[in-house]
Design brief:
10 strands; globular; about 25% strand
Length: about 220
Amino acid sequence: MAIGFLLFTILALASSLAYASDPSPLQDFCVAVNDSKATVFVNGKICKDPKMVTADDFFFSGLNKAGNTSNPVGSKVTPVNVNQLAGLNTLGISLVRIDYAPYGLNPPHTHPRATEILVVVQGTLYVGFVTSNPANTNMKNKLFTKTLYPGDVFVFAEGLIHFQFNVGKTKAVAFAGLSSQNPGVITIANAVFGSNPPISSDVLTKAFQVDKNVIKYLQGQF
């Protein structure tokens, strides 16, 4: 009886771990179709009829082109996930190109469904991530940082807040792989201060321990 319960527990844990990220595919491929008008919703994308699949379903062109960094943060992320490349559906992987103007920033953000591995191909980036809240309430979240040069690689664990900042006087370029066909992104400042409808200023004043006018100013920036 005890052995049976133990085996059941192990199987249950293994199953939960297996679904901690994108599930494994059950066929060679499952090319996504445009399901914007679909009345059936699935965790992922509806599969295209395999007989209708072509090589173009697995192809994307354009990552050789620099993104437009003329924006307040001075960076541009060009994604290649299942929404741009239908053949990624069910494969549990995606890619981005990130361009940075001099002193440009990819601001603090998280990917709720993916670990990210980043490689610098041009320029110098100051990168970092912050750990989740420690069990000991007397301890603080820990910051890990590194200055990266061309050819350097850094990894950001799934769900943790991270950033990249171009500390050079010239533009920088990096590419990153993510462990999900649709990793998602939550830019912290935009989500907190630019949500629609906005989070109550009373909530944010209490959370950040600042004057309400500061909160109103920050909300006005987004």
